[in-house]
Design a protein that fits this description.
The chain is of the alpha/beta class. It folds into two domains: 234 residues, Alpha-Beta Complex (Spore Coat Polysaccharide Biosynthesis Protein SpsA, Chain A), CATH 3.90.550.10; 156 residues, 2-C-methyl-D-erythritol 2,4-cyclodiphosphate synthase (60s Ribosomal Protein L30, Chain: A, 2-Layer Sandwich). Helices cover 32% and strands 26% of the residues. The protein has 13 helices and 18 strands. A seven-stranded mixed sheet has the order 5-4-1-6-10-7-11. It has a five-stranded mixed sheet with strand order 15-12-18-16-17. The chain has a two-stranded antiparallel ribbon with strand order 2-3. Strand 16, helix 12 and strand 17 form a beta-alpha-beta unit. The two termini are 33 Å apart.
């Protein structure tokens, strides 16, 4: 069964605040362009956000003079989404407002994230988006672990707030699009300046929910932060989290797909056109075999399913070749730190006879998944006249995938 909450997260736009100057780091290079683990910090952050399946648009707000530099970086590292760079404002709040102004009108949620938080994990981003969808506004945060005092400029302690009420607020933060747009415009007109988007939204009268952040999700501000981030990103590149080191080396995923026969359509299985009087009904090319494999590899990586990434409500997917879904799924899986090791699939159908076409199917699927054909196995069987397949009402496919990685 599809996860309705995950499916409802479609239509997310991300605004990346990238206006830092690096003053506190005493660097001539703006901190978002400093390198850790062999890549600019900004690129690490954009890759993490781009790999998040609900995100359909990314806008980066940064000083106008730095736009060519950022665009050159993104040009050398193409991603599944077009990254749009726009001039920011004099303050972070104004930069975010400029970024939000370039978000498409049909976006349901807007997620705001700091360009210099490159180690934010996928689960934290999804928690924030889920809470924003349900409550309207949400931010990641960590409970205070030390006593926090209110202190006067003279150094005298004024008050000791209850520690259980105190949180260190991080990004990402996410909001229903209308709430964030309205709050930023009202604050601009009134001259109100908040410390972050959640404070602006609260000032405008909307409640904000705090969800669990991550201790790895540091903001790079000082030189020491670079060393910490280097460690975090090096661990991440090897598939390890500093706060969760015990993750398995292997993952197994299962996929299953059904399609009815329909007249007037081509029969496509495993990317191969099979001569037959009928094809399969579906929004794309209805390649049941490719769809089952896609669900298996996505499921193994914990990245949802084909319906989440390629919904049948999206006109861009109409009559689309399902091998493209597999290629893009592979990119998402590799971005998440996994490698596809092998796939085993079974077709269930009475007719047509597909045995002569199995080698070509293996070849097509292997190419799409970046595998040797020897790592892809496809079988076909009848159901002895039982079930819908046996009655020749349609075709189903099942697949299992093995992924490796996440730990050396």
């Amino acid at each position: 069964m599809r996860d309705p909450d995950r499916k409802d997260l479609s239509g997310v736009a991300a605004v990346i605040a990238a206006g830092g100057t690096g003053t506190r780091m005493k660097s001539r290079v703006p901190k978002q362009f400093l390198e850790i683990a062999g890549k600019p910090i900004l690129l690490h952050t954009i890759e993490s956000v781009s790999a998040l399946e609900p995100v359909s648009q990314i806008v980066v707000a940064l000083p106008a003079e730095h736009i060519p530099r950022a665009e050159a970086i993104f040009g050398r590292h193409p991603m599944r989404l077009e990254i749009r760079c726009v001039p920011g404002g004099a303050t972070r709040q104004e930069s975010v407002r400029c970024g939000v102004a370039h978000v498409r009108a049909d976006a349901d949620l807007i997620m705001v994230h700091d360009a210099v938080r490159p180690a934010c994990d996928r689960d934290t981003m999804l928690r924030v988006l889920q809470a924003a969808r349900k409550k309207g506004a949400a931010a990641a945060g960590l409970p205070a672990t030390e006593t926090i005092q209110r202190v006067a400029r003279s150094g005298r302690v004024l008050a000791t707030p209850p520690r259980e009420e105190l949180y260190a607020i991080q990004t990402p933060q996410a909001f229903r699009a209308g709430i964030l747009r309205s709050a930023l415009e009202r604050a601009h007109e009134a001259g109100f300046s908040g410390t972050d988007e959640s404070s602006v939204v609260r000032w405008a009268g909307h409640p904000v929910t705090v969800v669990a952040g991550s201790p790895d999700n540091i903001k790079i501000t000082r030189t020491l932060d670079l060393d910490i981030a280097e460690l975090l990103m090096s661990k991440k590149a090897r598939g390890k989290s500093v706060s969760a080191m015990g993750e398995s080396k292997f993952r197994v995923g299962q996929g299953i797909d059904y399609h009815r026969f329909a007249p007037g359509r081509k029969l496509i299985l495993g990317g191969v056109e099979i001569p037959f009087a009928k094809g399969l009904q579906g929004h794309s090319d209805a390649d049941a075999l490719a769809h089952a494999v896609c669900d298996a590899v996505l499921g193994a990586a914990g990245l949802g399913d084909i319906g989440l990434h390629y919904p049948d409500t999206d006109p861009r997917n109409r009559d689309r070749c399902s091998l493209e879904f597999l290629k893009e799924a592979r990119e998402k899986i590799e971005a998440a730190g996994w490698t596809i090791r092998n796939v085993d699939a079974t077709l269930l159908l009475e007719r047509p006879r597909v045995a002569p076409h199995l080698p070509a199917m293996r070849q097509r699927l292997a190419e799409s998944l970046g595998l040797d054909p020897a790592s892809v196995n496809i079988k076909a069987t009848t159901t002895e006249g039982m079930n819908a397949e046996g009655r020749e009402e349609g075709i189903s496919a099942q697949a299992i995938a093995l992924l490796g990685g996440k730990q050396e």
